[in-house]
Write a structure and sequence with these properties.
With 138 residues, this protein is an alpha+beta fold. 41% of the residues lie in helices and 30% in strands. The chain has a four-stranded antiparallel sheet with strand order 1-2-3-4. The relative contact order is 0.15. Keywords: Signal.
C-alpha cells in the first residue's frame, strides 16, 4: 500500500511541476538577463548593455559614438539592487543604486536608477525599456 501511495504522490508532484515551466522559465530568463545587464554595466560594457535594450527604444532613441564615449569617462564602482516590483502591465521595475567614478577627477558619487523590463512573447526574451542609466543627471 505504501508503494502505491508513494507512486500516486510522485505522479501528483510531476503533474504539478508540468504546469510550472512557463512561469519558472520566464522568471529564470528575467534573472539571467538582469544578471547579464548588471554585469555589463559593472564592467563598463555599455555597448553590450545597449544590446539588451528594447529594439524599439534603440530605434526611437539611438545612441551615437559621442554618447558611448561619455560612458568611457566613468568607471562603475558598484551596482546595487534596491528592490523591485511587478506592475499590472506585466512589466518589472527594479530600483538600482550605481556607484560612479569620474575617470578624470576620480570623484565618486551615487546615482539612483529605475530599470523597467518587459517580456516579449514573440522573441521569448526580456527587454530593458528604460534605456541605459543617465549617469550625468541630464
Amino acid at each position: 500500500m505504501s508503494k502505491l501511495l508513494l507512486r500516486c504522490l510522485l505522479a501528483c508532484c510531476l503533474a504539478l511541476l508540468a504546469g510550472c515551466p512557463k512561469s519558472a522559465s520566464k522568471g529564470t530568463a528575467l534573472d539571467e538577463v538582469q544578471y547579464a545587464y548588471s554585469a555589463a554595466i559593472r564592467w563598463g560594457d555599455f555597448e553590450g548593455a545597449w544590446n539588451l535594450v528594447d529594439p524599439e527604444v534603440r530605434k526611437q532613441h539611438p545612441l551615437s559614438d559621442i554618447d558611448f564615449s561619455r560612458y568611457k569617462q566613468v568607471q562603475i564602482s558598484g551596482y546595487r539592487d534596491q528592490g523591485g516590483t511587478v506592475l499590472g502591465s506585466g512589466e518589472v521595475v527594479r530600483d538600482i543604486e550605481i556607484g560612479v567614478i569620474n575617470r578624470n577627477t576620480l570623484a565618486e558619487r551615487s546615482v539612483r536608477y529605475r530599470e523597467r523590463w518587459r517580456y516579449d512573447e514573440a522573441a521569448k526574451t526580456w527587454w530593458l525599456v528604460s534605456g541605459l542609466p543617465d549617469l550625468w543627471g541630464d
